[in-house]
Amino acid sequence: MSSPKILVVDDQPVNVQLLKRKLEREGIQVIAAYTGQDALDLVPAEKPDLILLDVMMPDMDGMEVCQRLQETEDTRSIPVIFITARSSKESKLEGLAVGAVDYITKPIDLDETLARVQTQLRFVAINREMVDLQRRLQESRRAATVGAVTQGIAHNLNNLLGVVLGYLDLIKAHHTKPEFVKKNAEHVENAVQRIVNIIKQLSTLVVKSRPPMLKFSLQRLIEDGVNRYQNDFKITEPVTIDNPLGDQPVETHVEIFEDIVAKLLINAWESYGYNATGKRPIAITTRLVDMPGSTRAVEIRIEDRGTGIAARIRDTMFEPFVSTKETVGVGMGLTVARHALRNLGGEINVIDRPGGGSVAVLTHPLEKKIRKTPVTEPPFP
Fold first, then answer.
1. How far is CA 100 from CA 39, 44, 120, 373, in A?
2. Which residues form the signal peptide (predicted)?
3. Considering the domain boundaries, does residue 334 fall inside one?
4. CB-hemisphere CA count at 13 Å for 305?
5. Does 256 map to a domain?
6. How many structural domains comprise the chain?
7. pTM of the complete model
8. Under 8 Å between Cβ of 272 and 357
9. Which of 80, 108, 136 is the C-terminal boundary of a domain?
10. Is residue 65 one of the residues assigned to a domain?
């Protein structure tokens, strides 16, 4: 492991030499700067672990140097210890307010300075270990997710291909009966369409960049989402819409938004079970809410009166290929919907409905946030 590196900044060379001699005896690398501008020039190239910074310097004082370091992402995390002759409480508070982590008053006690430096270096080492641990945990999570998705894809595609081959065998065996051939060909087409849908959903999951968004009427977004749900899944039963917000503008990506609504609606419809008879009521309601960070958002609740959330999937319903359904080739809808909405800055949760059934709660910000850095999303929530 390389020895820690400290930048000492002081306009008095004798002070720099005293600190350098003391720190180097402890195996610490020391680089020196005699002006604030020299320090700012050295930091990007040297990347010190810690900065000892004199406050009172000509041209650019330590306060301004620290403020400039705080303005840049690459230098903001470098801890700064101020060194100054000013010992008042107000001076110390001022230094801490601009980003310093500690304060040493002159005349310098070298042993005390060494102890404070070593304490901050331990904090730096702990922080780096935590960052490395988070990185490794994220890599492990991604690897586990890839494994789960790969297994799910193989299972679903094998089942669907088995269905296709089975119906093809039936077509071959009864090729002289047109009606029989037509019926089984439709089953083959449905199975192939399920395969296409899985591939399409996987393509959606790997999109990382935030899509372009424009403002649209909330009422139209909901109605178009309902239309997509009815057309894509050939469902004629109406959906009740109670939207007191009317044409409230929402900044979003229309196609993604509609697809999310359609997926949540088919999930609600299927919650009644494939053998259900009679009507399957589904209701959509809206209201304005605040998201974390005081972001104003629209909340869309999609409510059904189906079988509710099964206990065995309550904690895993948003994971790939987890499903309450008994058919083959399913289990990606909620995963894709949540990922897509998070990429738009929103969130999806599913909760129990009082009296039976469930409620999908879709929260979408009214306007996108302005970010300084590009936004990317991991493939899975």
1. 15, 18, 11, 25
2. none
3. yes
4. 9
5. yes
6. 2
7. 0.49
8. no
9. 108
10. yes
Measured in whole angstroms, the distance separating CA 173 from the mean position of its chain's CA atoms is 52
Regarding beta strands 5-9 and 29-33, do their DSSP bridges make them parallel or antiparallel, or are they unpaired? parallel
Q: At what angle do helices 218-232 and 254-270 cross, to 10 degrees?
A: 50
At 137-171, the pLDDT tens digits run: 777 766 665 665 666 667 667 777 888 888 898 88
The domain spanning residue 78 has which CATH number?
Answer: 3.40.50.2300
CA nearest 356: which of 268, 279, 234?
A: 268
Rounded Cα–Cα distance for residues 13 and 113 (Å): 17
Total length of the chain: 381
Q: What's the domain range around 322?
A: 209-381
Cα-to-chain-centroid distance, residue 295: 16
Q: Domain boundary residue among 76, 108, 140? A: 108
Tens digit of pLDDT for each residue in 211-249? 678 899 999 999 999 999 998 888 889 999 999 999 999
